[in-house]
Design a protein that fits this description.
It is built from four helices and no strands. The protein is an all-alpha fold and 104 residues long. The longest helix has 24 residues. InterPro entries: EmrE-like, Small_drug/metabolite_transptr, Small_multidrug_res.
Length: 104
């Protein structure tokens, strides 16, 4: 169950990071609200998952899901660059997350 909660927390990190970009520095109301609500939910689920998962593993997976998700959201929603170097960096993050999960 902790891994499911951690995954949801990571996905909510993608939501709040994407909404924060759309909030334009917290000057647009609804994206700002989504950012704060998703952030609180993400942190809450992360804290519950950390009750039974190691700190390093849970934090790395949470950040990794958020980083990869934000990278994809940036490319898809905001037209950010997609090149070989950025893909290689994202691949390394995914590989690190996989290794960390295997070690747990």
């Amino acid at each position: 169950m902790a891994w499911i909660l951690l995954t949801i927390a990571g996905l909510l990190e993608v939501v709040w990071a994407t909404a924060m970009k759309s909030s334009n520095g917290f000057t647009v109301f609804w994206p700002s609200v989504v950012t704060i609500v998703a952030m609180l939910a993400s942190f809450g689920l992360l804290s519950i998952a950390m009750k039974s998962l190691p700190l390093g593993t849970s934090y790395m997976v949470w950040v990794g899901i958020g980083a990869i998700g934000a990278f994809i959201a940036g490319v898809v929603l905001h037209g950010e660059a997609l090149n070989l170097t950025r893909i290689a960096a994202a691949t390394l993050i995914v590989a690190g997350m996989g290794l960390m999960k295997l070690s747990a």
